[in-house]
Specification:
This protein has 424 residues and is α/β, with parallel strands linked by helices. It has 2 domains: 131 residues, Aspartate Aminotransferase, domain 1 (Alpha-Beta Complex), CATH 3.90.1150; 270 residues, Type I PLP-dependent aspartate aminotransferase-like (Major domain) (Aspartate Aminotransferase, domain 2, 3-Layer(aba) Sandwich). It contains 15 helices and 17 strands. The strands form 5 sheets. It has a 7-stranded mixed sheet with strand order 6-12-11-10-9-7-8, sandwiched between helices. Strand 9, helix 9 and strand 10 form a beta-alpha-beta unit. Helix 1 packs antiparallel against helix 15 and helix 2 packs antiparallel against helix 12. The longest helix has 25 residues. It is globular and about 70 Å long. The protein starts with 6 loop residues before the first helix and ends with a helix.
């Protein structure tokens, strides 16, 4: 399609958008009395309007039933989390038994590494990407130290080539092969938070498994954003947060994936608690742990139902639309955003560098040569909610559920005005 940088053309694209009705399903903040252009679904998704109903239902049941709500509410609390498993499995490409919802992302990564990082004298090294999200770095370093090892000996970071802004898959595969039988674990962010690059998860997983390593993925920026086939790829484990593209609310619960080959095992290393115990014997208060035969065995405490309710509300929309339709619009709207950026670049003296490679999801990370944080502040003051990353990058993530093509056009005009005003 031949794009045009005009308001009429953007409106034409919106008129034919198969998902356009879902924009009305979300609450938008306002700046200066106007609905914002929201580019930070990669940080915190907007609130679905239907969320209130789901939360109110739990509050009403608590009010009317108190403790009996665990078993006699419309959606009983004691197995409320099970309602999320089937729709979530579709989003991540898993079997229903392989997913569960609990805790927060880094907590779950720690819990999963109890099972999947078991270093030996020979096989103890971990491969991750250079400058992974800081929480992942801290988590890996502390795990290594917990096992009596030194991070500088055990953790190998895959670096970008000099002068390049992306990781090359061949470099990751080569490093996996080189480390070989010393490699215990590959753990990488499926979509890099900084440059928006989507890693070749299938190829990297296959390479890690070929040398006998465990392979896991931090899918914080991937779930609800890119196509995932965790089961088919034979990923060992994965975890993700739910408040970015999944729109479940600030700091909300995390999801986990555990490959079916590890389910139902009593002898797997694991931190255990009573909610991972089989439902049939959970309330018998027996002294020995009897694990569930699905990923819920990794749960340690009863899930926070008030947090699960918004997640369930959002998953209902994912169930209605499906990842294929979301990805189709994502590709179209991100391509239009890239076109707008390049058109504005032609009209102003500054130069943009899009550092996100072709392997991408919703996010475009833009290096603003010749522009400082003042431009970011201008955008925010004028109704564009975006994200700043040092030293000079703005991250733009037009989530397909609620962003419009008109948003992309309007953003381009505000961006141009901001650059010209800074140059005066």
């Amino acid at each position: 399609m031949q794009f045009l940088n005009t308001l009429d053309f953007a409106k034409q694209l919106d008129a034919t958008d198969a998902l356009k009705k879902y924009r009305e399903e979300f609450h938008f903040p306002k700046i200066n009395g106007e609905q914002v252009i929201y580019f930070t679904g990669n940080s915190l998704g907007l609130q679905p309007k239907r969320t209130q109903k789901y939360v109110d239902e739990v509050m009403s049941d608590w009010k009317e039933l108190a403790v009996e709500g665990h078993f006699y509410s419309k959606k009983p609390w004691w197995d409320y989390h099970e309602l999320l498993a089937a729709p979530l499995a579709k989003v991540v490409g898993a079997q229903k038994a392989e997913v569960s919802v609990m805790n927060a992302l880094t907590v779950n990564l720690h819990f999963l590494l109890v099972s999947f990082y078991i270093p030996t004298k020979k096989r103890y090294k971990i491969i991750c990407e250079e400058k992974a999200f800081p929480s992942d770095q801290y988590m890996l370093q502390s795990q290594v130290r917990f096992h009596g090892l030194r991070p500088e000996d055990a953790i190998i970071e895959i670096k970008k080539r000099d002068g390049e802004q992306m990781w090359r898959t061949e470099d990751v595969l080569s490093k996996i092969k080189d480390v070989g039988d010393e490699l215990a674990l590959v753990l990488i962010g499926g979509v890099n938070y900084y440059n928006g690059q989507v890693f070749d998860m299938e190829a990297i997983t296959k390479a890690g498994k070929s040398v006998g390593a465990m392979v896991g993925w931090d899918l914080a920026h991937a779930v609800g954003n890119v196509a995932l086939k965790l089961h088919d790829w034979q990923v060992d484990f994965a975890a993700w947060c739910s408040y970015k593209y999944m729109n479940s609310g600030p700091g909300n619960v995390s999801g986990i994936y555990v490959n079916q080959k590890y389910l139902g095992k009593k002898d797997i290393p694991r931190f255990e608690g009573w909610w991972g115990n089989k439902k049939e014997t959970r309330f018998l208060m027996q002294p020995e742990f009897d694990p569930l035969e699905n990923a819920d065995a990794w749960q340690v405490s009863n899930p926070p139902v008030l947090s699960l309710a918004p997640y369930l509300a959002s998953l209902e929309m994912f169930e209605e639309v499906g990842m294929e339709a979301l990805i189709k619009k994502r590709n179209h709207i991100v391509a239009y955003l890239e076109f707008i950026l390049r058109e504005i670049d032609k009209e102003v003296s500054s130069t943009f560098e899009i550092i996100t490679p072709a392997e991408r999801g919703c996010q475009l990370s833009v290096f603003l040569h010749g522009q400082g944080k003042e431009l970011f502040k201008y955008l925010m003051k004028n109704g564009v909610i975006t994200d700043w990353r040092e030293p000079n990058v703005i991250r733009l993530a037009p989530a397909p559920f609620y962003c419009s093509f008109e948003d992309m056009y309007r953003f381009g005009q505000i961006l141009k005005e901001g650059i010209l005003s800074n140059e005066q």
